[in-house]
Amino acid sequence: MENTNTSGIPSWEIELNSRLQAFAKTTGIGEDTVRTVLATIGIDGKTEQSLTIIDNPEFLPMNDLFEAFVDSGLTKKALLRIAVPHLRGMTHLGETSNSVNGEILKSIKDIAESNRSLTSLSDEELVSKYDDSNTEVAKILREKTHGRTCIVFNKDGTVNKSVSLELIKAAKKQQTPDKYSINGKVVRTYRVGEFPFPPLDESPFYSGIALVNGYCAKSDTQWNGISHENRVFVSLITGNLSKMEMKKIWKDAKSMTLDELKTEYGEAALTYEEMQANDTLPKLKIVPGANPTKLDKGF
After folding, report:
1. Which of 148, 166, 269, 274 could form a disulfide with 171 if both were Cys (CB 3.0 to 4.6 A apart)?
2. d(CA 122, CA 141)
3. Which letter, b or e, does each residue of 52-83 get, where b requires 16 or more Cβ atoms within 10 Å of its Cβ?
4. Distance of CA 45 to the CA centre of its chain
5. Does residue 250 contact residue 234 with C-beta atoms inside 8 Å?
6. Can you tell me the distance from the alpha carbon of 85 to that of 79, in angstroms, rounded to the nearest whole number?
7. What's the pLDDT tens digit per position in 153-197?
């Protein structure tokens, strides 16, 4: 799953960079050399799969690391043993001085210095403050969970605190899944800093076309100020509508109540009432199938 954020680098890559920097520093091997050697054993750093491989000792056994870094003469056994917990995400790395986003991280560090109280908050208190605008809280949670998936969202977009806290506790010590079962229902889990896209309003005239600030470019109609019920009703008016017909229907939707629309468009009214009785009315919402949104990567 590829994810985007405002600075262009996904959360998993920030975490991977942080681990590789700590590993390189501890072993005394140059970071470029570390990346080159890892690439030869299947960890190219280009996809989230690299972090998954590193996290799991079955995918990346200790013997493979000894062969790649010790047998080759790049470092000593003791140094490798000290460095591997950094690579696995089993230690609290904190800040890294040469991060990809050094300037952003420095800004966040300054914020942390001026507001140290956040670092003393419990996991529950941090989750209560967690949202897509609080980068400092996200930074603390991401470091605690080693960039692993641990956040679950409710349908309304709010954080499911109880389940997220369970996963945060687990993520501190072990790899966590990208899906989780809650009362028999499977839901997606997110890394700290990743957020699902909110649903988009759909054009009443064109299925699958999202409104942009209420505007449908294909029909040249603006739906801001028109009730959701009226929009749903309009979507049930069938036929090969011309642009002129769409404009008339749109104007009616702006000026009429739902009952008046039902009187004006009898066939659509019948469909509306049948679907309403069966709870199958269109939602006129588009849930983006693309990637989740993210915070600025400065955490």
Report:
1. 148
2. 10
3. bbbbeeeebeeeebbebbbeeebbeeebbeeb
4. 19
5. yes
6. 11
7. 998 788 999 999 999 999 999 999 999 999 899 999 999 999 888
Residue 279 has pLDDT above 90, yes or no: yes
The packing angle between helices 135-145 and 161-171, to 10°, is 50
16, amino acid identity: L
> What is the C-alpha to C-alpha distance for residues 298 and 114, in angstroms, rounded to an integer?
17
CB-based contact 74:14 (threshold 8 Å): no
CA distances from 87 to 51, 65, 214 (A): 9, 11, 47
* Contact assessment for residue 139 and residue 296, using Cβ atoms and an 8 Å cutoff: no
268 and 239 in contact (C-beta within 8 Å)? Answer: no
Per-residue model confidence as pLDDT tens digits over 58-103? 889 999 999 999 998 999 989 999 999 999 988 765 544 444 445 5
Q: What is the C-alpha R_g of the chain?
A: 26
Name the residue type at position 18: S
